[in-house]
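Subject line: Sequence and fold of a protein, written as structure tokens
Enclosed: The protein record, placed directly beneath this head.
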Amino acid sequence: MKKTILAVMVFAALSLPAAAEMLLFVDKDCHFCNDLKSELEKLNYYSEFDIQEYDVLSSEESASLYLEKIKEVGYGGDQVPLLIDGGYFTGGKDSILEYLGSQKTLEISDNETPLLTTEESEELKQILEETPQNEIQKEIPDLPKSEKAEKTIGIIAILFGLTLFGTIIYKAKRRKH
């Protein structure tokens, strides 16, 4: 059981994306941009998310970067404020604040109980050190690629079917009322 939990924790840690800077494009004369900037400062989001701000009309470099980035992410507009996070973009004060709020990481303050006690953390470290990597991988049997693909497609088909079935039942019940 411990090895399974360990494998899940290792997988979760490895699958977390690396922190990348976010680009915020604004115009100093835009009141929506100025309201957003004030809100971001108040919430300390600039430092929390490593947001780099660019005034699109302040320099040729900022304007060129803006044009380059909107082309990369497929943004068809030309409005600010615009936040670009990797390949994702969102525009408008409320949408940007909503997006950043959904990206906040879980923070544990001094008065909250951490997920693991110090003893549990040390025990986990010890298990990690003692367990060879190839032993962790033995927990998950290797299936032939075609069998893996078949099972994956089967699971997706079942989930799709259940969703479709649930939608049909829901709509049928709504018609009766």
In short: The first strand starts at residue 22 and ends at 26.
